[in-house]
Design goal:
The structure is a single chain. The protein is α+β, with helices and mostly antiparallel strands. The chain has 12 helices and 15 strands. Strands 1, 2, 3, 4, 5, 8, 9, 10, 11, 12, 13, 14 and 15 form a 13-stranded mixed sheet that branches. Strands 6-7 form a two-stranded antiparallel ribbon. A hairpin with a 2-residue loop joins β2 and β3. The radius of gyration is 21 Å and the shape is globular.
């Protein structure tokens, strides 16, 4: 018999966070998240909790945890899409439909009590954080801030009445083989007369972060499920990027001195923490810093990229994206980064997908966002 327990205290939250480590113990591609990072993510230190209300549960058989889930209400999402929206996330469970049914019943009952009638997910905790259920690409480890999963999860979710909302794609490319075909090179050369590519100015870091936020919110505003980043969220993200990202891995494209597009490269932290088993103490901090700052990592991820809305359907829009990728490619090569993940890209974003595939990137992971009417 499956028993559902609501997470009510720090002890329960610790068990909630720890559950995947036992579930994925035999998965060679599982990377244990840092416990400290997960605990902060599920606390007031997560800037998204300023507009997100959430609740978590675990499923038990006897005294053993066999599953977990969260449910969320995002007030910013409701401002854009209606007061009847809600979300689920952080779904992990053994291969047992009774467990999936019990977890989703608890989440849906809570969401109904909050007025939700339309559910989307999974999000941890909203679309600007970790998003999507892995449905293809289980044979490689996840990049930084991306999710992993079990092949049976999709069936477990779909049997609860959830259907595909949209798919997200992760692209993989080898830095050495990244190339720009002659026709693209010609467009890039023409655009250099109008477009200036510059590094982020660390002396004005806070102001630069808000410029990136404005570009992102402009460029993504018409995408599926879009929720704008708040100033506080981007400022908090900036503090993290300041520690992890070198100056030459954030670039801004300007036209007539006006910032119009940007790109961020992130060293793949998952590569650096793979053997830490989620622990930074007693020596994990030293290992992590040494691997990131001294030895360096060999892979990276592009988690953020944006082009202002007014340029997306012009010739300059995609060319600015190419110029930014070119600048980041050279930075990666200088740092001996051999491969990079571009993620995530909406499956419906034909323009960006075409650009990536023409320069040598391949889609290698697929994540699904689900929806359900209650």
């Amino acid at each position: 018999m499956v028993r559902i327990e609501k997470i009510m205290d720090k002890r329960g939250l610790k068990a909630f966070i720890a559950f995947p480590s036992s579930l994925y113990r035999d998965d060679p591609n599982w990377i244990e998240p840092l416990y400290l990072e997960r605990a902060e993510h599920l606390s007031h230190k997560n800037p998204g909790t300023k507009h997100i209300e959430w609740q978590a549960w675990v499923a038990k058989k006897g005294d053993k945890i066999v599953g977990r889930i969260t449910a969320q209400i995002d007030t910013l999402h409701r401002e854009l899409y209606g007061e009847d929206t809600g979300h689920f996330g952080m779904i992990d469970a053994i291969d047992d439909q009774e467990v999936f049914s019990a977890l989703f019943a608890a989440a849906e009952e809570w969401l109904l009590s909050k007025g939700a009638r339309k559910i989307t997910g999974p999000f941890s905790l909203n679309i600007n954080q970790e998003s999507g259920l892995l449905v293809d690409g289980f044979d490689t480890p996840p990049s930084a801030l991306m999710t992993h999963g079990k092949p049976y999860y999709a069936a477990g979710v779909e049997q609860q009445g959830y259907t595909q909302g949209i798919d997200l794609l992760a692209y993989w490319m080898q830095v050495a083989s990244l190339h720009f075909p002659p026709v693209l090179n010609k467009l890039m050369e023409q655009a250099r007369k109008k477009v200036t590519i510059r590094r982020l100015n660390r002396k004005h870091f806070s102001e630069e972060m808000q410029i990136l936020r404005q570009i992102f919110n402009s460029g993504w505003q018409n995408n599926w499920g879009f929720v704008p980043f708040t100033e506080f969220e981007f400022a908090t993200m900036g503090e993290q990027l300041k520690l992890l990202v070198p100056d030459d891995m954030i670039y801004i494209a300007e036209i007539d001195s006006v910032p119009c597009a940007f790109i961020v490269g992130l060293p793949n932290i998952n590569e650096a923490i793979a053997d830490l088993e989620g622990r930074l103490l007693p020596f994990g901090w030293a290992k992590l810093l040494w691997r990131l700052k001294v030895r360096g990592v060999r892979t990276a991820r592009v988690p953020l990229m944006g082009v202002r809305q007014e340029y997306q359907f012009s010739r300059l829009g995609p060319v600015m994206a190419l110029l930014l990728i070119e600048a980041l490619r050279d930075s990666f090569a200088k740092r001996n980064i051999a491969a990079v993940e571009m993620s995530w890209i909406l499956e419906s974003n034909a323009g960006m997908r075409t650009i990536l595939e023409r320069i040598g990137a391949i889609p290698y992971k697929r994540y699904r966002l689900y929806e359900k009417q209650l």
